[in-house]
Amino acid sequence: MLFSVVSVQSFCSFALFQTVRHGFPYLPTALAFDPVQKILAIGTRTGAIRILGRPGVDCYCQHESGAAVLQLQFLINEGALVSACADDALHLWNLRQKRPAVLHSLKFNRERITYCHLPFQSKWLYVGTERGNTHIVNIESFILSGYVIMWNKAIELSTKTHPGPVVHLSDSPRDEGKLLIGYENGTIVFWDLRSKRADLRAYYDEAIHSVAWHHEGKQFMCSHSDGSLTLWNLKSPNRPFQTTIPHGKIQRDGKKPESCKPILKVEYKTCKNSEPFVIFSGGLSYDKPCRRPSLTIMHGKAITVLEMDHPIVDFLTLCETPYPNEFQEPYAVVVLLEKDLIVVDLTQSNFPIFENPYPIDIHESPVTCTEYFADCPPDLIPVLYSVGAKHKKQGYSNKEWPIIGGAWNLGAQTFPEIIITGHADGSVKFWDASAITLQMLYKLKTSKVFEKQKVGEGKATAEIVEEDPFAVQMMYWCPESRIFCVAGVSAYVIIYRFSKHEVNTEIASLEVRLQCEVEDIITPEPETNPPFPDSSSQLPSLKSLSGSTNTVACEGMMKDSIPCLNVKARPVRMPPGYQADLIIQLVWVDGEPPQQITSLAVNSAYGLVAFGNCNGLAIVDFMQKTVLLSMGTLDLYGSSDPYQRQPRSPRKSRQFAAGLTELSDSPVSLELERCKSPTSVKGSRKLSLPTDLKTDLDHVNGHCTSPTSQSCSSGKRLSSADVLRANRRGPGRPPFRKAQSAACMEISLPVTTEENRESSFSRSRSSSVSSIDRDSKEAITALYFMESFARKNDSAVSSCLWVGTGLGMVIILSLNLPASDDLRQSEPVMVSPSGTVLTMKGAVLTFACLDCMGTLTHQPYEVWRDPYSADDGDKTRKRKLVMQSPSSSQDMGDHQFAVICSEKQAKVFSLPSQTCLYVHNITETSFLLRADVVTLCNSVCLACFCANGHIMTLSLPSLRPLLDINYLPVTDMRIARTFCFTNEGQALYLSSPTEIQRLTYSQEMCDNLQDMLGDLFTPVETPEAQNRGFLKGLFGGSGQAFDREELFGEATAGKASRSLAQHIPGSGGIEGVRGAAGGVIGDLTRARIALDERGQKLGELDERTASMMASAEAFSKHAHEVGALAPTPWNWELSILRPSLCFPLGKLSALLSLHPVLMLEVCSCQLAQHCSCSQTIRMPKINCHCTPLPFTFPEMSIHS
């Protein structure tokens, strides 16, 4: 979807474009398969359609109405798809372009659509409705035919009840002029389309769910609501000649087996050399309620039940032929589950499943955070794939994946891309995202370093979450050094190193006390209580609010210096890949649980990891395994604190807090929620997210509260009356709602009245702490290691750590590293405040450093070396450090630029003078959720995503606006938690709990996108039908010729009522093609494809012409031989055509088009003389030299 082209610079232009969507379709509802093109389509409850082919061919399209997709029907080998939606609209999609678009729509006004059927090689679509009527739609014009099968004409006149909605429609494999109609109440009607009457009717006392034909067209099978299968014969429709309940218990007294659950769908597929397959879903016994959903395969006397992990939505049997009147020869079953897609191999007796090549297991565990890396080192993807391939599952079918339609190529613009997803179960997945594809490379399980909690020990542990204690909250990855760091929801940090060797070793661990000992309160007046006490001061009163033992110790027990999880003390076997090097855990302090981590940074060159939360900052040397710094945020300022804060007695504060325990919106209740799991749900209670991005989104009136707090940033004091008025909302009207977890991604947006907005204090949001809690605690929201000028009088750069807080303060800490790398393992690292404090508006989100030329300066890093490799002996112990990026490895000059972005504004400072050169106020009514400094078109820009849905880019260092598009309002915290930018103008976010949406804001990427997308339609010749006898194929037996155009056309059937349905032209024509192509490159690509297709078709035409000429010569030879024996050639023709049959010229030409194989010259005047039918168009009288008339016969008729 192209939004607009906003700004064009001399070096780059910007546009916003959705590139591709990965993952499993969210809430699937429908399934379809094209057996010739071999592509699969899945419809969803949100109105989306995903079309899948060979790996790399993955297309997403969306109905504008957003109505659920009820059914999908391919126009087999035509490059088109029909979708029926819950808003009673039919849509025709054009699949011959890389971005499918709607060609036509038909909206039913008076009837609800329940079922659709499109016969093979037909342009007439049968549509069943809830009223029991059947309408017919012309696919080419998408207009209703006047031919209607009314329900009261289909059933017997003596029937007094309505048969219910149409649940099945299908034409007979034996005769296309007969239509089988199934009604919900158990009525089956075999309708003759020519005579417009019912040939036969059948009744069953159980509701029908589906019907399946035998390929000969003499029998059909029905599935019913009592778990039974009935087999009917057209010769005796009074009752089914076979009734079975496959999973019903057989009664001893010979009675009917017990009823079972409904069989929702059945398919009846025949084989030429074996027994037929009967495949159905559902039908299990009621006495096994805990049994999982299953698919049953009956083959001869063998019955196989395949249990599924999720409920079955739909399934399809893949067969060798698209013709319904031939032996089907099934070879696979595609099963669409609520959260998975599997394909079962029917050619092997044990029915193994195929290994799925699509990235549909993104949601295997709910995604809690994402990171995106473009243009990373090229050797990473092969290395990660090699270690990940060793852990793949076994037991898959040895045959190739059967869905192999479409075509895909790499395209011109390719570079290595990696996406990392963190999950609620503690797993981390690395994905190869190059060339807009997605393939899993490697899976890391972070929970393996901890002891498993035994059942029943929940109340005896110090965990701060009830479920998913290993959920990944934040990730930090250095691709060059391959250092990977994870922060978990249980207040721990794990540092991983990459190794190609398996090791068995103990895991080092550290415990850190990080607690705010003094209250960050603006200096109150002497006789006034503090406006909002520190939440830590209220924890003793938690017992009166909740008896939950995961947040506070049991009665009579004070937890102190206890980590939330237990690290394995024994040696642990670590396979090749990422191996834990150090685990850092925050511990309980005086009965207060550790707060979740809000910021994380690692530097491999320094050997340091820094992380912070709402209490303070910790810096750990992971080379020496020591804690360098553990300090409250207030202590980081030293004498440079811009606010006047007064330390208070913790006991006095707790006494004051006891008076506020009845307020559900107090920091205590918020603290309780923050200690919940990111994926647990208890009743209607909303839980905090792993990253805890709060939803201060009063979007109802178009107003978003800022995360900055005036009461703190401006030094404004609140009176106790203001506090009481702010808390007067009561338990039913909180100032905001916290978002649910990764498993429940919905969000509640409050209705904020003007009175509430005026009386409530300004709220402050950070990436981890609640808005109210931020007023009393200053969280660490951003960390960044870099070589910069720490002080104004510095003449050279030094190692620094930049710290950003929730109040918009930037603190620079100086790092004193050992002079030589040889002393790094023995000499301590010193951390000291530089005294530099910069101010921003709003919580700080990100930092970056530019050299004097405006080029991005990358952080120092250590070149990767295998820590357990012994190839080079002592040489491997020597570290190779890269202190500057290649672009700035030369003289950096005497100054540099520091880029700082908060949730309200961006600033560029000149260092070491610390002069603010540029400032840009990004938003006043909303706040930023994500900001990243990225490279694009050989330059640097600042990319921002705002809570009101705007995506913006700013030039650096001038901060000039380049792009501002209202893309996606944040109505769900899942988007806010997972949105991230990367280099080369790309971004991604979790569009649903199961799907990742990638987009680009680079016009160059948009122009090249057409070459990178896969083709859904490729020219494939439709397989020929099995040869049938000339007499049987044309004049009798099965497969009678049926002219639907003559029967359903306007000339015969008339026009349908205009009020019944409304035709809506679609955008799948020129406009859709233009929007999909996006530039001159797309036009050239289409021209090239058209030329290729035309050349291929011309080549096929030459081959067919040569074949026809050879056949004609052979037949001419045989015809002369036969003519020599017969009295006259015409008498011989009459002997074959039968004297009683006459062919008008119109129908004769139709026969010629069906069998353009063999030619026989027949005198046109002789044909006119011998044909006495009144419908025959007489040929003009021609004298002796009459014009030869070409006649056509099948080749096999020569021998008859």
Automatic annotation (TrEMBL):
One GO CC term on file: SNARE complex
Membrane among keywords: yes
V-SNARE coiled-coil homology domain segment(s): 1069-1131
Keywords of this entry: Cell membrane, Coiled coil, Cytoplasm, Exocytosis, Membrane, Phosphoprotein, Protein transport, Repeat, Transport, WD repeat
Species whose genome carries this gene: Catharus ustulatus (Russet-backed thrush)
GO molecular function annotation: GTPase activator activity; myosin II binding; syntaxin binding
Topology class, membrane: Peripheral membrane protein
Residue ranges, compositional bias (Low complexity): 535-544
UniProt protein name: Syntaxin-binding protein 5-like
Main location: membrane
Record-linked Pfam families: Lgl_C, LLGL, WD40
Region annotation Disordered: where it falls in the sequence: 523-544, 700-720
WD repeat start and end residues: 201-242
GO annotation (BP), single: exocytosis
Signal peptide feature range: none
Localization: Cell membrane; Cytoplasm
Domain of life, source organism: Eukaryota
Family listed: Belongs to the WD repeat L(2)GL family.
UniProt xrefs under InterPro entries: Lethal2_giant (IPR000664), Lgl_C_dom (IPR013905), LLGL2 (IPR013577), V_SNARE_CC (IPR042855), WD40/YVTN_repeat-like_dom_sf (IPR015943), WD40_repeat_dom_sf (IPR036322), WD40_rpt (IPR001680)
